[in-house]
Write a structure and sequence with these properties.
By secondary structure, the protein is α+β, with helices and mostly antiparallel strands. Helix content is about 40%, strand content about 20%.
Length: about 425
């Protein structure tokens, strides 16, 4: 019998996977010799999931914008004032959590007491505690966070661009919601979202470190059996149909900045992709931006020499099944000149075969190095997992992408009708 080498074998990593009866997926990546263990417990639930049909219900539920982020915050509050942060600190560990458009992730990083840290992480995520008083208290805390973001020029630049690119897709909305939307959140709203999206069948645990995979999986499985959760139906998420056109071509805002901030984006109307198809499109457009505006690209150097950009200027593509977009930007003394040069050259700048092959080798090298950075590795694994992508497929897909494919996607993606610009100008009328 011919042995078919798996993608993981080709990169020299062998994760151990297990799916429990509850549907919870566990992935343990042994890293012998590493002192630190890093674990994430993530749910396929993010800020865009505000319209859905709960398990066993015929009715569609609409919840306030920002509730996924609010729920993430509230998971750290437990009865009798039990402090989860303090418990992790007692174990010599660090914990944090973050909410994105399509996922919410809880994590710990530890050098010892890994078993106790796993138990604490499980209890953190699996024991919700929402009351009228603690929800009302949290509203004030998150309102301050939202107002802080409203005063940050970089955040306004990006948020204004998202509102300009998208008319209806909830990716246009700030992850934390608005002051007005979070004020309407109730404990019942939080419990509905928790019961719908924090079911094990919608979640994954990823752990990497110098551990015994069977022991880790056994510990989690024993814990999950005590919960005795009933099977969960597939979640029906409801998203509005996004029109092809952008909402606005240009948004300008004045704020206390010394130098104008400029950002331009392209909305991708090719949505609905999953797995390797989504990965291939993501990698292809990302390669395009590295060739056009990476630090060693001729266009980047010309813009830098002219003084239109600094070393922090960047361009990137991001995507999920329900959206995709490119963003580029940074500080510039002359937004109009920068935009004019880019629009003149982005569509015609030569893409050189030698640069392309060198770039692919560099990307594969960075992918291999990713496995030595547990935090970035866990982030990438979770992001790919919920998009139906096997992280280990990245090198093979990268190798298979041709320069002609990059060129084809450049012509398809960089369309004027899908472009919008956001600018933050100094408060003074003269620039």
């Amino acid at each position: 019998m011919t042995h078919r080498t798996s993608p993981w074998e080709l990169i020299g990593e062998m994760p151990v996977r297990e799916t429990l009866e509850s549907g919870l997926e566990i992935v343990v990546l042994p890293k012998p010799g590493l002192k630190r263990t890093y674990a994430t417990y993530a749910t396929h639930y993010g800020s865009i999931d505000s319209h859905f049909r709960p398990d066993g219900s015929d009715a569609v539920v609409d919840v306030p914008d920002g509730i996924a982020h609010f729920l993430e915050h509230k998971m750290y509050e437990k009865p009798q004032g039990h402090d989860v942060f303090e418990r992790f600190a007692e174990l010599g560990a660090y914990t944090n959590a973050y909410t994105e458009y399509t996922s919410t992730t809880f994590l710990f990083s530890a050098t010892s007491a890994v078993g106790e840290c796993i138990d604490t992480l499980l209890r953190l995520v699996e024991e919700p505690y929402f009351t009228h008083d603690n929800v009302e208290k949290e509203k004030g805390i998150i309102e301050q966070e939202i107002r802080m973001y409203l005063d940050m020029p970089g955040e306004r630049l990006r948020s204004n661009l998202m509102h300009a690119l998208y008319q209806k897709n909830p990716v246009r909305l700030d992850i934390a919601g608005t002051v007005e939307s979070i004020r309407t959140i109730t404990p019942d709203d939080l419990y509905v979202c928790y019961r719908t999206f924090y079911h094990p069948s919608n979640m994954v645990i990823f752990l990497a470190g110098d551990v015994n995979p069977d022991a880790v999986i056994g510990q989690i499985a024993d814990h999950e059996r005590t919960r005795q959760l009933a099977p969960h139906a597939a979640i029906e998420r409801i998203y509005p149909q996004e029109p092809a056109a952008v909402a606005q071509k240009r948004v300008e805002q004045r704020m206390p900045v010394a130098t104008p901030l400029w950002m331009m984006g392209y909305k991708d109307d090719r949505v609905g992709l999953v797995g390797r198809d989504l990965l291939r499109r993501d990698l292809t457009i990302s390669l395009m931006w590295s060739l056009l505006l990476g630090p060693s690209a001729p266009l980047f150097n010309d813009l830098y020499e002219e003084g239109l950009i600094n070393e922090r200027f960047s361009a990137h593509y991001s995507s999920a099944t329900t959206y995709g977009l490119s963003q580029m930007g940074g500080e510039t003394p002359d937004p109009e000149r920068l935009e004019a040069v880019l629009l003149q050259r982005l569509g015609s700048e030569p893409l050189l075969p030698r640069s392309f092959e060198r770039l692919k080798r560099k990307e594969i090298g960075e992918f291999v190095a990713l496995f030595e950075n547990l935090e970035e590795l866990a982030f990438a694994f979770t992001a790919f997992h919920f998009r139906g992508i096997d992280l280990a497929d990245v090198p093979a897909v990268l190798e298979d992408i041709s320069l002609a494919e990059v060129e084809q996607l450049r012509q398809e993606h960089l369309r004027d009708s899908m472009r919008a610009t956001s600018i933050v100008l100094p408060l003074a009328t003269n620039r």
